[in-house]
Amino acid sequence: MLKSKTFVKKTRAGGVMKIVREHYLRDDIWCGSDICTECKHECAVLQRDPFIESNLCSYLHYVIPDTNVVLHQIDVLENPVICNVIILQTVLQEVRHRSAPVYKRLKDIIHEKEKHFYTFTNEHHKETFIEREPGESANDRNDRAIRVAAKWYSQHLEKSRAEADGPKVVLLTNDQGNKRKAEESGLLVYRCEEYIKSLIANPELVDCLALSNDDKNDITSSKMIFPEHLPLSRIQAGIKSGTFLQGTFRASRDNYLEASVFVQGEGEDSTEVLIQGLQNLNRAVYQDLVAVQLLPRNQWVAPSSIVLQDEGAAKDDNEEDKDEEAESLRMSAAESARKPTGKVVGIIKRNWRPYCGMLNPSQIKESTRHLFTPADRRIPRIRIETRQASTLAGHRIMVAMDGWPRHSRYPNGHFVRSLGNAGDKETEQEVLLLEHDVPHQAFTQAVLSFLPKMPWVITPEEMARREDLRHLTVCSVDPPGCTDIDDALHCRDLDNGNLEVGVHIADVSHFIRPGNAMDIEAANRGTTVYLCGKRIDMVPELLSSNLCSLRSNVERLAFSCIWEMNHKAEIIKTRFTKSVINSKASLTYAEAQMMIDTTKNDDVTKSLRGLNKLAKILKKQRIKKGALTLSSLEVRFHIDSETHDPIDLQTKELMETNSMVEEFMLLANISVAQKIFDEFPDCALLRKHPAPPPSNYDILLKASKSKGVEIHTDSAKALADSLDVARVDGFPYFNTLLRILATRCMMQAVYFCSGMDSDFLHYGLASPIYTHFTSPIRRYADIIVHRLLAVAVGADSTYPDLMDKQKQAALSNNLNYRHKMSQYAQRASVAFHTQLFFKSRGILNEDGFVLFVRKNAIIVLIPKFGLEGTVFFDAKDKAGPALVFDEEGPTLKVEQHTFRLFDKVKVTISLDASNIQHQKIRMSLIEPVIAGVSVPPPDVEPQAKKPKLDR
């Protein structure tokens, strides 16, 4: 049956356009129940068994939740106890429109066979579709559509209820008006909370209930702590008039009374507004989109240099806060460098997610209200209600926020699930992945269905489409233990006296075709995440470690970038081709270095020597153009094969072969970037590294000046040249420290679509254009670049999304986010394993250098372990030493000793496990010796017994 609606619309030109909208209705849409005797179907979703046991509904029943129940109680719906649920098309469409994260979670539930969730397309069933009545709001129409569908289900299953245990339909809604109208229609209807509380099988499910609007005001107070948030209409008008600014709220890790709001402007015209004090923060949470109002200029303050964390007992609107807050503001106001300061006047969009952390059980016996402390220090503590406090003690749990009343110091939330014992390696790794939003679930069957069938071979047809390069002496050079080998190289002499150099990259795009489930999953994951001792793959292991891995002595599909070069490393000719290769060796950096250094003269060794010679010339050319050579200390853990604990920790050693591989990967990325931009100027996926604003270099300039060295930051070349000659007599580590500090001054490199930007420069590489092509096994950006290049050289066909610059820009945003979160996850993994390493080693004393100076502390770098830690000088329980901080230096005078950047110190290193959730490496000063501040070194063996080491 076809329903059509015709209306006319006036065009901009003044004409009249006739529009016809058609809506197809059917009478053969089945109800999904295996008990139904009316519908003809092959595979029922709604089952007789299992069914939910309820004190309210002691009979077999199906549940129909309305839209708000799905949006707010998705944690409950995900619980294994909840099954036999009908999700109406009306609800699914509303959820999709109102919350993309909840919609994805709902779709995942629907796809779980064990859950028995059935989607009923009520909007296309002729007996359940309804038109919107005159004067009826869209929301009221949708509520009525849900009631109509529930009524139809009830009547439709009436005949099946001739059986003693025939199914009934229960509508769940928290809307009082909707509930009243449903009852008037004769429907069985309950509030979500009263239904969940009636469940026999899982009483703790009540803890997962999100608070309703009525519940949020349950905790009352005679006094309001926070100002009222302005309505959205006033906020929008204020932003339009310039009274308010819109930006992303970024809470401080070190000071819970301080945050900043990043206001994006036109081009580089962006602002950061400082927010200080509970009232000015006004219930904003990290990553919320907020509206801020600037305070008068005479109320502007400088960021506090004091570490101040909300670690005390629960405080509810008492006077203690005022003193603490005033002290924080006084300390800030004394600073000279004031910043634009404001207050949050409203929330434009909440960006809440489930948070990992631990429960702080209430001191009141029998209490069900407790505080939850998130693992992320930027998130405020959350008040939840649970009856499982004793069970959850010492566990990592997940909690979701529901709201933040004006009269409560803390937001309200609800328990989601337990993750396991705190400190357990598996639990902590799960927390790490959840907190950094790393997709790490097993690949679904839908994704795996697109893997090639094994045994896999290259077909004659595929071979005919590719260039056969199996005869070349190709080899790969990677870190030890690498199984996802996505690049290999070769170098050989040509008859004309030039050299042929090839970079061969795994042809992942051959296996992952646009738009299928595997492609969608890879695009969402964005990148492979490397943790200590674990890898979260972007693509299934069959591809990442087998069919796409360029292992030695097997035939593999590749995308090759081949140059003809002269002996000065000047490129004569470049070509790109899909190929078949057979790597002759899979080497580690150390093995390749040994081959180069020996007198061997086999084909692989000759190829490596040729590559290494050219790479040195290429690097010199890059540096001459102004490319930066920066430094960051990376550590490698040696893991015990049985316990999986770290047994040794050392900084990574870089060899010539590391640089050799890097140079040719960079050259391939630059060559491919130019090619895809020439062919597709509007939709090429590129990567840029913006030049840092001058203010970023302040700390670097102060550090160099303190040692009498001049650093120029006018351009990347000026910076590179001045870093090259920066030396201090008797201080060989000075240059490395400067380069580490210079790295901290840099901006983040980002992916972008060429049609949406005009600034392509990669500042760090001093390259006018750049992209990522060389790691498609572990980066989705490279897969897109492969597809663009394949179209450019006629090796594959295009598809609409590839040529859509808006879609490419949206994809770039996701890839940038995933890349950033993967970096954070990797750092957190290193931090956790560092804690494990020091856990069993007691107290160690090591030499270090002052990297930063703060108002009440120094941050020390330990080169031996690539470790940073903070030495605090203020005492919590007693009067601390006399401290004088000079921001201009920056210097910190502790008693009679003054600390400057790059000063050499000796510290003790130990693990502070007093707070099980926030365990940290603690450092205490040994040298210089300051009375009342320094600690004696831990007991060590007499010096005579120690072997002397050559340094």
Automatic annotation (TrEMBL):
Cofactor: Mg(2+); Mn(2+)
BP GO terms, sorted: CUT catabolic process; nuclear mRNA surveillance of mRNA 3'-end processing; rRNA catabolic process; rRNA processing
GO-annotated molecular function: 3'-5'-RNA exonuclease activity; endonuclease activity; RNA binding
Subcellular location: Cytoplasm; Nucleus, Nucleolus; Nucleus, Nucleoplasm
UniProt biased composition (Acidic residues): 317-326
Superkingdom in the source lineage: Eukaryota
Region feature (Disordered): 311-337
PIN domain span: 61-180
SUPFAM superfamilies per UniProt: Nucleic acid-binding proteins, PIN domain-like
Oligomer status and interactors: Component of the RNA exosome complex; within the complex interacts with EXOSC4, EXOSC7 and EXOSC9 of the exosome core complex (Exo-9). The catalytically inactive RNA exosome core complex (Exo-9) associates with the catalytic subunit EXOSC10/RRP6. Exo-9 may associate with DIS3 to form the nucleolar exosome complex, or DIS3L to form the cytoplasmic exosome complex. Exo-9 is formed by a hexameric base ring consisting of the heterodimers EXOSC4-EXOSC9, EXOSC5-EXOSC8 and EXOSC6-EXOSC7, and a cap ring consisting of EXOSC1, EXOSC2 and EXOSC3; DIS3 associates with the base ring of Exo-9.
Entry similarity comment: Belongs to the RNR ribonuclease family.
Official protein name in the record: Exosome complex exonuclease RRP44
Organism, scientific name: Gasterosteus aculeatus aculeatus
